Amino acid sequence: MKMTLKNLTPSPDLSGLSAAELLAVIAGFQQQLALKEEAIQRRDAHILLLEELLRLRRIQRFAASSEKLHQLQLFDEAELEADMDALLAQLPDDLPQTAEAKAKPRQRGFSASLLRERIELTLSDEQKAGASKVFFTKVKEELQFIPAQLKVLEIWQEKAVFERDGEEVILAANRPVHPLGKCIATPSLLGYIITSKYADGLPLYRLEQMFKR
């Protein structure tokens, strides 16, 4: 059974062309081929960028939903955001955005629930002399870590002496009730030790070494 191929582009008849004309045709074909190869290379590069961006988004999504100890830490998350921004900057502007990117932009900065301290960088009186107005703009947010600090609480109890029937009667101020009686650790320190050992799995000898430092 013979099959007839239809709608095929006929090959151009080059038999009547001169050598110079043939060279020009070949040069044109080579130029078209080079343009197609360049377009393929750009497409492959965009595919690699999109695959890497998809991988980073999956890492970010896993880190946001996981509560295990091996989840991404804070500085890894910041580096992840920077890598994603760098990849997005390399993509062409004419690529269509996903519905997720249009509907749910990424949050910038730290959570509003964190404790915040405002630090103002002020101009000197000489620098702002003659200005019509002065205002502040927030230029950066930094996350500060305050290591555990130990201090000794000296409990001084006030006492009053009264003379009653020729005898001295001493009245002492009420002392707060400690959950462990004469324990020398404050309730906050006890809570930290219990959380570190039983929730975070930190051995007591490691805690002792940390406190010694």
UniProtKB/TrEMBL annotation:
Transposase IS66 central domain segment(s): 182-213
Annotated coiled-coil segments of the chain: none
Domain Transposase TnpC homeodomain: 50-119
PANTHER family linked: BLL1576 PROTEIN
Protein's name according to its UniProt entry: Transposase
